[in-house]
Specification:
The structure is a single chain. Strands 1, 2, 3, 4, 5 and 6 form a six-stranded mixed β-sheet that branches. By secondary structure, the chain is an alpha/beta fold. Helix 15 packs antiparallel against helix 16, helix 19 packs across helix 21 and helix 21 packs across helix 25. The protein folds into four domains: 135 residues, Mannitol-specific EII, Chain A (3-Layer(aba) Sandwich); 123 residues, Rossmann fold (3-Layer(aba) Sandwich), CATH 3.40.50; 178 residues, no CATH class; 167 residues, no CATH class.
């Protein structure tokens, strides 16, 4: 499939003026829809925003490639927009985006479009080609430039590639692997840049791409054996075991795009560190820790555990909440939740799922730190924390280590495995195979269990003090806590502060503090709803495109998807973020004041029947949303007067 088969002229717009990233996304979604590529425009935009929430898709040098692979896409397609004056797309290099291609990929079906998308990403690395596109005087010229460039580069399929200079002739030989999470654009842009920089330096470079359609241009065993250095420019796991004993430079895929020359020089200098594979999952994570600061690394490991934990918490929590909904309290108040067969089954399944929360949290924190050898060690540490084991009572039950204990067990288990890897790195190569199947699990599980058992009483004391403190809070104190947690949910809409409040709320579910989770979800629902209300009732404050986007926020807010507010916050943070924080704080405080409880950590309006005091909860959300709307209306100027 050619690039021009994905890009229709109806989906091209030149000489565009947009004031912010949100406006640019809106225009591109409209262009994509004009090309008849979408089944659900709102669903596709939601996918685009979700991808942007993970990090900007601007690749620097005036280019941005937003993309989404979602069920809302009918067939693969491209939309293109030229912004001569540029728009701030939050590029890492601070450049304004002049050329934006938006990619739409269906969630299922054949990936026949990926070759064309890989070609586009590669062609955009040519600055002359990019410049010609920005200067195009018509859609026809823009379209023809792409067609001509693609034919020039890829037209002669049977033409043999020129032989690479031999290692002896060039003096070096570098192999590389590139991979990004989606495998659509950045993977191939990094590959192209590394190859081009290698040619400039006179160094032969072969690049393997780990794209969405699989492995492209794979590295062979003989090539790896003969190479002087390896570059792994990846933001996801790749096969690292094959590079054991080679000098390896590990970097992000973004560095592959923008720092190709530097990476090649490091790999060819003979000073790159020698990589020693320790078994388990083959990934780039073993060497990547040095790329992040301590705080960033801790946050990354914690979020890996939390992201794997949440499905258990959400699924189990909602099933438990449904059990109470379908039960009859009058049969046996002491057995409420299991009085009827349906309720008993739902609650049993929900409790089993919910009970996995702490081991999964600890296991995947440890796995993030130490790769697969850390998984079992972390799981067992989390179980020991969940049981509350002590040396006096190994069976547990004496202390309540809870969420905090499992969190610490995950970090302890992960770093124990890292220590074991270093200790066993000097063992003979003949014993390499027994490390992951015997030494790491046996010694790691034992050490993690011992350390977790030792700290359980101390962590349990902290946990009990926190729980008792929350339970003993009077009305005013709980309202204040609700205000703080609700407000935190709107500080960065899905960022670290938002996640801190959410994780605290889910952790308190296990302690029986259901009112805290209710305040957290109320705060998270308010931001998108407040913005949607403001776009509806104060239309002069927004452009037509913003008003259309505001309608989607009703759905996102009611579904407890705070990220719907991100485009508006990014466009006008000084006014939008304080307004959302104010509204969310009001909702969180009212939820606490009205005694609302929530056993399910997600679901928004759809789990309303399972909420304690549902009418009070609705009132808290409505009042908070209206408050946020009014504050935003006061702070925001009319668009025509700005």
């Amino acid at each position: 499939m050619k690039i021009t088969e994905l890009l229709k002229k109806e989906s091209i717009e030149l000489d565009v003026k947009v004031s912010n990233k949100g406006e640019a996304i809106d225009r591109l979604v409209e262009l994509m829809d004009a090309g008849k590529r979408l089944k659900d425009k709102a669903g596709y935009k939601e996918g685009i925003l979700a991808r942007e929430a993970q990090g900007s898709t601007a690749v620097g040098d005036g280019i941005a490639i937003p993309h989404a692979k979602v069920a809302a896409v009918k067939e693969p397609g491209l939309a293109a927009m030229v912004v001569p004056e540029g728009v701030d797309y939050e590029a890492f290099d601070g450049s304004l985006a002049n050329l934006i291609f938006m990619i739409a990929a269906p969630a299922d079906g054949a990936d026949v479009h990926l070759e064309a998308l890989a070609r586009l990403s590669t062609l955009l690395m040519d600055p002359d080609f990019k410049g010609d596109l920005v200067k195009a005087a018509s859609k026809e010229e823009f379209f023809q430039l792409i067609d001509d460039k693609e034919s020039e580069r890829y037209g002669k399929k049977t033409e043999e590639k020129p032989a690479e200079p031999s290692k002896a002739a060039a003096g070096y030989r570098i192999l590389a692997v590139t991979a990004c999470p989606t495998g659509i654009a950045h993977t191939f842009m990094a590959a192209e840049n590394l190859e081009q920089q290698g040619k400039k330096l006179g160094i032969s470079v072969k690049v393997e791409t780990n794209g969405a359609e699989g492995i492209g241009n794979p590295l062979t065993r003989d090539e790896i054996a003969a190479a002087d250095g390896i570059i792994v420019a990846a933001d996801k796991n790749v096969d690292m075991g094959r590079f054991d004993g080679k000098r390896v430079v590990v970097a992000s895929v973004s560095d592959g795009i923008h720092k190709g020359e530097e990476l090649i020089k490091r790999a060819s200098s003979g000073e790159a560190p020698v990589y020693h594979h320790t078994g388990g999952t083959s990934s780039s994570s073993e060497n990547s820790g040095s790329q992040d600061g301590i705080g960033r690394s801790i946050y990354k490991h914690l979020m890996n555990g939390v992201s794997h934990m949440l499905p258990f918490v959400i699924g189990g929590g909602i099933l438990i909440a449904l059990a109470f909904l379908f039960d009859d309290y009058s049969i046996d108040p002491g057995n409420f939740g299991k009085n009827t067969p349906l309720a008993a089954y739902l609650k049993t399944v929900g409790e089993q799922a919910f009970g996995m929360m702490l081991p999964v949290l600890a296991g995947y924190i440890a796995m993030s730190i130490a790769d697969r050898p850390g998984l079992a060690v972390g799981f067992v540490g989390g179980l020991i924390a969940k049981m509350g084991s002590t040396f006096a009572n190994p069976g547990g039950g004496d202390v309540n280590s809870g969420f905090l204990g499992a969190l610490l067990a995950g970090f302890i288990g992960g770093y124990i495995v890292i220590l074991l890897k270093k200790l066993f790195s000097k063992l003979p190569r003949s014993l390499e195979g027994i490390k992951p199947v015997l030494l790491y699990p046996l010694i790691g599980i034992l050490l993690a269990a011992v350390v977790t058992t030792f700290i359980n009483p101390f962590v349990g004391g902290i946990n009990d003090a926190m729980t008792n403190g929350l339970n003993s809070m009077g009305g005013s104190s709980k309202i204040l806590l609700g205000i703080v947690l609700g407000g935190m949910m709107s500080v960065d809409m899905g960022g670290p502060v938002n996640k801190a409040a959410y994780v605290f709320g889910t952790a308190q579910l296990a302690e029986g503090n259901f009112d805290i989770m209710a305040a957290v979800m109320a705060g998270g629902m308010v931001s998108p709803i407040a913005i949607a209300l403001c776009t509806t009732f104060f239309k002069k404050k927004f452009t037509e495109k913003e008003r259309q986007s505001g309608l989607v926020n009703y759905i996102m807010g009611l579904s407890f998807i705070s990220e719907g507010a991100i485009p508006f916050a990014a466009a006008d943070p000084i006014r939008v973020i304080p307004s959302c924080i104010a509204g969310s704080a009001v909702a969180g405080g009212l939820s606490m004041a009205l005694g609302c409880t929530l056993r399910a950590p997600h679901g928004g309006i759809f789990v309303l029947p399972t909420i304690g005091n549902p009418f009070g909860y609705l009132m808290a959300i409505v009042i908070g949303s209206v408050a946020g709307c009014l504050v935003l209306a006061v702070l925001k100027k009319n668009r025509e007067t700005e």
